[in-house]
Amino acid sequence: MILMYICICSAITDKQIKTAVANGASTLEDLQFELGVAINCGRCAESAMELLPVPEFEHHLHATEITRSRRQAANDTQLTAAVVAQ
């Protein structure tokens, strides 16, 4: 059996993280609480997060069009110059 250490500071392996995920861990905070991952130097945080399940909403991301037009809001505090009739 080959062990891949994810967190050297706390001697946490990928197998331990996968077991924690199988038992319900779904965030880095869960892994920090359960195993002590990324609580010292933090260099392992990204590698540990790669072993977490991908949230369902990330499978369905869509681009949203952003327009450059600017409409004045009813509560806009910026004053508009008044036109004075001559």
From TrEMBL:
This is Bacterioferritin-associated ferredoxin. Belongs to the Bfd family. Transmembrane segments: none annotated. Pfam families: Fer2_BFD. PANTHER family: BACTERIOFERRITIN-ASSOCIATED FERREDOXIN. Keywords: 2Fe-2S, Electron transport, Iron, Iron-sulfur, Metal-binding, Transport. Residues 5-52 form the BFD-like [2Fe-2S]-binding domain. It comes from Paenalcaligenes hermetiae. InterPro entries: BFD-associated_ferredoxin, BFD-like_2Fe2S-bd_dom, BFD-like_2Fe2S-bd_dom_sf.
